[in-house]
Specification:
Shape: globular
Strand order of the largest sheet: 1-2-5-6-7-8-9-10
Oligomer: single chain
Helix content: 25-40%
Radius of gyration: 17 Å
Length: 275
């Protein structure tokens, strides 16, 4: 299978909301993140999406904390995983703070929620300048889109010359962070509907026990998969996963059962460059 058609699996092992009360294997510390990174790599992941926490376990955007976590992960897995940090606000941080931490850390990749960084038109020019800095620094952005309308808005920004990348990688979020949220494969269809701007490289994350079904559907339609405890704790059969690596492994089995091949980290990097 050509590298451009291989399916990348990203692991999102913790997010900014859940705690060990939700699952004792949810990683919080750099050492715990390192263990999850290594186990997820072995299970088939090409990327890890990293959140860090403060001393009380709360969501944190802090350069030193990110550098400690990413250095520990790199020491364990080397370049065999793409390392992506989040810039998620979680209702705590302002756009300028979100952008600043990315520039201070200078990670390999960063996720950027369009609705957070461009809450209205007055933020467009600043966002465009930020993306240009990322381009110069060779930091790969992945833009998080919660609705098809956001995909249309991103395309409009590109059409006006405000996006200094030919094709930004994007992440489609199927559903919301709500109690009892369960995403379904059909939630992907509005993002792929006629008239919605198509992204060259797109990934899907989903909530609840149909996570594997959702991301496998995405893979069959040309997309990529993000799974992990940030959005889901359960295996396809309804059993509680023992760790993030179980969700990666379940996705790998489903994807390969469909005759698709997995991307490793270098393949994912080449896909992003070629997008």
């Amino acid at each position: 299978m050509p590298d451009q058609n291989r399916v990348a699996i990203a692991v999102a092992p913790n997010g900014g909301r859940r705690t060990k009360a939700d699952h004792p294997a949810l990683p919080i510390t750099p050492n715990e993140l390192t263990d999850v990174a290594a186990a997820s790599l072995d299970a088939g992941a090409a990327m890890i999406h990293v959140h860090v926490r403060d001393r009380d376990g709360r969501h944190l955007l802090d350069a030193e904390a990110y550098q400690a976590a990413t250095a520990a992960i790199r020491a364990s897995v080397g370049d065999r995983l793409v390392l992506q940090i989040t810039s998620e606000a979680l209702g705590i941080y302002r756009p300028e703070e979100q952008m600043r931490v990315v520039l201070e850390v200078r990670p390999e990749a960063a996720s950027l929620a369009l609705r957070e960084l461009v809450p209205d038109q007055t933020h467009e020019a600043t966002f465009a300048a930020f993306l240009e800095t990322l381009r110069k620094e060779k930091i790969i952005p992945q833009v998080i889109l919660y609705t098809p309308e956001e995909a249309t808005y991103l395309a409009a920004l590109a059409g006006r010359g405000l996006i200094p990348f030919d094709n930004l990688p994007v992440l489609y979020v199927l559903g919301r962070y709500t109690v009892g949220q369960t995403s379904r494969p059909t939630d992907l269809l509005p993002f792929l509907a006629p008239g919605i701007a198509a992204a060259s490289h797109w990934m899907v994350c989903a909530f609840g026990g149909q996570e594997t079904a959702c991301v496998t559907t995405a893979a069959l339609l040309g997309g990529h998969a993000r799974v992990g405890f940030e959005n889901n704790l359960f295996l396809p059969n309804g059993a509680l996963a023992s760790g993030n690596q179980d969700l990666v492994a379940a996705t790998r089995r489903a994807v390969e059962a469909c005759g698709l091949s997995l991307a490793n980290a270098d393949t994912l990097r080449s896909q992003w460059v070629g997008a």
